[in-house]
Amino acid sequence: IASPKNIDSSDFCKQLEQWKSDGILQEFPQGSVCSISKNGNIQPIQDQTFYYGANGMGNIPLAMVDQAKKSSHFELEQDTWVSPSSGVRYQKNSGTWKLQAKGKTLGYYDQLIIAHNGKCADRIMSKTPAKDVHSLLRVNFNPTVPAHGGKKMTLNSLYSVTVVLPLDSEWSRALPPDFVCGMLADHPQVRSLTCQTRKYAATSQQQQEQEHEVWTILSSATFGKKHKASQEFLPSEVIDKVTTLLVQAVDGVLKTSVGGTPEPNDSSSGDKQDAQQTTTSKKPTNIKPSQVLENRVQLWGAAVPLNVWKNQEGFLYDSNNNVGVVGDWLVEPSIGGAWTSGYQLAQHLLLEDESSKKNPTTVGMEGGFERSESVKSAGIAAIPQ
């Protein structure tokens, strides 16, 4: 999480401080988050505070659930697949929403809030009477969006590759000792590199027992689209290829050989330009094997919004059908944007109910899509510069 600069963030800043106080978040040490040029120039990002989950980012939603349970009657249903084709039905006679999963009715609700985007959110609302809401949930998947912002929500796709390397790896030796995370804004394949081992610093005794390092690479959207596959069941050959290409792309930036020696006529970065530089089919005589001991690959199919629906509200609410929508694509593509959107809709529902004793008014439908210049630059989120 980056401390927000581009949104009305006073409430979210208070929430960040609370999460820090409760031990949910930790600050990255000053100078440990850097920018890395595609030529390998490394500069710490100044005048910006970054946070990470003390025990993983999953602690944030768990903390929010705990907070909700303390202040109100709250039930959480987990591992429940609400089908986008038949799981949500509007009950016209009662004005409520029926939710069901695997043929079982989960309940009837006065309000339905969509805190999701992508194909499923589009499909969930497609057969409901909330046509204005559905029209804004229609989505494109693309690595870029027009300068004017486009006419539909547009999401990119990113690969996350986590690799295990031997301790004191070539990457560790090539990077400054204070380095934890690096952003590569101008690289065609890689957009971030993080050493999870450094981020979750171990005690001195644990450090003595460590034998490995864990690193995570996030790809560019262009790379994600080029190598897109079925994200639920990635083929093994895609996993191997994506891992090899991204590791060797990092090698190209850091002048290392963690990924081993590339095969002749096989570009480590996937670019035609690199492939054209290979003029012979002879195998190199000093072949180095890959140093990757283990890997995990995930395709984030509906990843980061490239445009934002600007409506001065930060959320959508249709009072005729009692349905609202929240998400980072309504504020800015970041955790702060997502939290702010949900918070603002909650305030709207509570304040309207208290002041008028009637259903909240319809808001947020009027507006237009604007391209996120920050996402265009960073690729993985709206990161304040």
Tell me briefly what this model is.
The protein is α+β, with helices and mostly antiparallel strands and 385 residues long. It has helices at 10-21, 59-71, 119-126, 131-137, 170-174, 196-199, 204-209, 221-226, 236-254, 272-277, 335-356, 373-378; strands at residues 25-27, 33-36, 42-44, 51-53, 88-91, 96-101, 104-109, 112-114, 139-141, 153-155, 158-166, 181-183, 190-195, 212-219, 294-300, 307-310, 316-318, 323-325, 368-371. Helix 3 (119-126) packs antiparallel against helix 4 (131-137).
Task: Give the tally of β-strands.
Answer: 19
Query: What's the shape?
Result: globular
Instruction: Give the biggest sheet.
Output: 7 strands, mixed
Question: Which structural class do the helices and strands define?
Answer: alpha+beta
Rg to the nearest angstrom?
23 Å
Helix content estimate:
25-40%
Mean pLDDT: 87
Distance between the termini: 13 Å
Adjacency order of strands in the biggest sheet: 3-2-12-13-14-11-15
- Low-pLDDT ranges: 266-270, 272-281
Helix segment tally: 12
Q: Roughly what fraction of the amino acids lie in strands?
A: 15-25%
Give the helices and strands, then pairings.
Blueprint lengths: L9 H12 L3 E3 L5 E4 L5 E3 L6 E3 L5 H13 L16 E4 L4 E6 L2 E6 L2 E3 L4 H8 L4 H7 L1 E3 L11 E3 L2 E9 L3 H5 L6 E3 L6 E6 H4 L4 H6 L2 E8 L1 H6 L9 H19 L17 H6 L16 E7 L6 E4 L5 E3 L4 E3 L9 H22 L11 E4 L1 H6 L7
Parallel strand pairs: 2-12, 8-18, 9-10
Antiparallel strand pairs: 1-4, 2-3, 5-6, 6-7, 11-14, 11-15, 12-13, 13-14, 16-19, 17-18
Helix pairs in contact: 3-4
